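Sample intake — NAD(P)H-binding protein
Collected from: Streptomyces noboritoensis
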Amino acid sequence: MTILVTGATGNIGGKVLARLHAAGHSVRALTRDPARAQLPSGIEVVGADLGLPDTLPDALDGVQKVFLMSLGHNKRTHDANLVAVARKTGVEHIVQLSTLGVAEVEEENDTPLGLWHRQAEKALTESGLAWTILRPNGFMTVALGWADAARGDGVVRSPVADLPEALVDPQDIADVAVRALTEPGHEGRTYALTGPEALTAREQVAVLGSVLGRKLRFEQISIEEHRAVMAGLYGEATADGVVAALRKALESGDDFRGRLFPDVQGVLGRRARSFRDWAEAHTADFA
């Protein structure tokens, strides 16, 4: 069985790829630029672009299972492109990375970010292929953006101060994805992935400071300042989608992101990693 991993050089896809390879599975990494992938020897690397459907048939040739992830405002079209080609090339099962909120927010009240994921999910679930959908909450690794502040003046800045979020460790997302790709019984299942606790940004900063043994201070910034940073990293359209979701969460005051779900433990048979667990594993990133 050959498993294709998209986003193979990214935060989640790279972890999924490494786990599958270490366990001895036949894996193929999809990337737009194989020459820059720098993946371990023994991993087949193919060049393709989810935005260019004509590049996908060769990448999917001989593949039985796919880990599918894409980001930003192109997600709906990129996922649909791969699903359409997968139907023609004999793929049997796709594990798709989506986002928490698709089931928690009604479609008519959704944000652009939610609608992109909703449409991507629909392309898969209506394809006739076997599917598993992973809906993670926000990633704990977002806190890596605080590393420079932690090393510098100790002032961590964010537009969200007191909104609880049950953030999830990307390691847990990858572990669940690998189980879904390699074990029977996950077809037709949707998993909501969160950590074991809901913490505000202030509380996260306090935990991080405790782990690092440093005095860190939280400072709230405007959404406009946050949007400028997001646009520089991910582009204007994606920044607008993220900010729209953020504004809605702050205005409502009752956000689903603070809800806890048991699916990580249900799939893995252990508790989800906490933010303190994550911080202790990443102290070197703040050194």
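Post-analysis note: The mean pLDDT is 92.
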